[in-house]
Amino acid sequence: MSTDPSVPDGANARRAADPEPGTAAGPARRAAHTRSFSGALGWTVLGTIIPGLGLWRAGRRVAGGIVMGLFVLLIGGGVALYITNRKLIEDAVLAQAGVLQDVAIGLVVLAVLWVVVIGVSHLALRPANPTVGQRAIGAVVVGALAFIVAAPMAVGANMALIAADTVDVIFGDGTDETPDATQPTLDPVDPWATKDRLNFLILGGDSGTGRAASTGMRADTVIVASIDTHSGATTLFTLPRNAEHMPFPKNSPLRKYYPNGFRSPNPNADLYERSQYLLNAMYRVVPTVVPNDVLGKTKDLGASVMKESVGEALGLDIDYYVKVNMDGFKDFVNAIGGITVNINYKIPIGGQTDAGVEPSGYLTPGPNQHLNGHDALWYARGRYGLDDYKRMERQRCVINAVVQQTTPQAVLTNFQQIAKAGRTNIATDVPRSLLPDLVDLGLKVKDSSLRSVVFDPQSGFNSPNPDWAAVQKKVQKALKETAAGVEPTATATPTSTGSASPSASTKPTKKATSKTKSDDLEAICGYHPQKG
User: Fold this and answer.
1) Residues near 437 by Cβ (< 8 Å), separated by ≥ 6?
2) Are 428 and 320 in contact (CB under 8 A)?
3) Nearest 5°: CA angle at 520, between 514 and 522?
4) Whole-angstrom Cα distance, residue 368 to residue 503?
5) I need a surface site. Which of 44, 456, 458, 531 has the fewest CB within 10 A?
6) Is 500 helix (H, G, I), strand (E, B) or coil?
7) Are the beta carbons of 314 and 475 closer than 8 angstroms?
8) Mean pLDDT for back-to-back runs of 10 residues, the chain (532 residues)
9) What is the pLDDT of residue 207?
10) Residue 91 in contact with residue 434, Cβ under 8 Å?
């Protein structure tokens, strides 16, 4: 390097010590190029855990500092925001259309940026002239780190999109939630402020294998779940599918078409004609007789009609319905990993009593029987050689098993299958805006003991000519028992069942005692083998 004679010697010495422009970026950058390849890999890993750290180590102090700052702000700010606004965020995710899609997009963008930072950090850290082998190893390491970071976010984004689609299909997009004539008007801020009890009509049915599609759904399962909105205490009321003379409220527009309730106008009706006026025929028959707007705007006229009638019969205001396609019920049970129940007698798989078609097999008695979707479906439906009332009793045990045994781990592990089963097999008129509050209420229900009332001949119920006034009195007494927390009745000492049981290990009485009007499902669904 030449010296300028017009410049003092000390200045020339300082110039000689400084790097010339374009030759190097100073000691920090030279150190980055002389660092070992193994060290570069180590800092690449650290830079993946804390985005920006690798850039900072490589001498890109400004870029590294910005990335690390954004990372800390994103994580710390996100956690702080969730802690301080948890309810608001959860409400927005569940109730507002588009939020879940935004979450999915955000996860994808974050994953892409994170992967870019990993790649750039490694390029800045590795030796200036890496060998072919080092390039290959670096590519593998960067690819593996990128996968570790991006894969969970891709899964999360996919789950968010699936959840968004599922919620849209089942609950709608939330754009029009004006209550119809059969829905309650709730406080949007605190729905339970003036609503001490929420009543759901659960309809289980199918179009029947081999049955014409025009026949429509036959609602063979009719259960009302009455939930205390403050405690989560729940009582299930099950009506037999062959109940006749179903009433309608006095002020219902349906009275114009059925002034005496859902019954044949012919007093001498034969069995076939009477079968068209059973409870399980109401869903498909009434909509063919009345105008589509007889109850105003409804999501499903057949279900809304049944809300009015079943509510009048039980003396309850039915708020919402949940319709389950029993043909697809097995898919849902498989998705949650199956259910465990106690089987107290042989339960037929298939078969037709009237046609003399033998079952293809039986579910054998035993405690803690873990059932897949196929077997759980027949546990709930099988009735060859039995009657509808046995089936009604088992169906409430299925509901209890699903409520008590479905865990967050099972939901997360099998989320896609559960969502798919829900989209294709569940329908409801529950408004999307109510979802956040229902999730909280559902957790209360899970932590409580379910009680149940089955209206059958043993309890004095007469399906051909029900005494609805007596039914309504029994319903009110049962609800008072739920509020009081009546203990289950047992008649034998506990017996070990080996593994955790889905229900009480004692042998409970078959029916509620004369002192109680409802059964505790943990007790009634316990293992108490029966003959036959």
Assistant:
1) 191, 192
2) yes
3) 145
4) 9
5) 531
6) coil
7) yes
8) 49 47 46 71 95 93 93 88 79 77 93 96 92 94 96 93 88 72 86 94 74 64 94 94 95 94 89 92 95 91 96 96 88 92 93 81 94 93 85 91 86 85 90 89 89 90 94 94 59 34 40 61 88 60
9) 60
10) no
Predicted local confidence at residue 327, as pLDDT: 80
Q: What does the alpha-carbon distance between residue 371 and residue 334 come to, in Å, rounded to a whole number?
A: 9
Structure letter (DSSP) for residue 278: S
Residue 399 token pair: 């509901």
223 phi/psi in degrees, rounded to 5: -130, 135
Instruction: Give me the residue spans of the domains in the chain.
Output: 26-171, 197-524
d(CA 371, CA 418): 17
Token pair for 18: 């400084």
The DSSP output letter for 123 is H
- Token pair of 172 as six digits: 């709608």
- Give burial (CB, 10 Å; 0-12/13-18/19+) of 233: buried
Can you read off the two tokens belonging to residue 47? 């830079």
Q: Count the helices and strands in the chain (H runs, E runs).
A: 19, 11
* Residue 470, helix vs strand vs coil: helix
What is the distance between the alpha carbons of residues 442 and 456, in angstroms, rounded to a whole number? Answer: 28
Superfamily of domain 197-524: LCP protein (3.40.630.190)
- What dihedral angle (degrees, nearest 10) is formed by the CA atoms of 454, 458, 463, 467? -90
Q: How far apart are CA 77 and CA 71, in angstroms?
A: 9
Non-local CB neighbours of 468 within 8 Å, separated by 6+ positions = 247, 312, 313
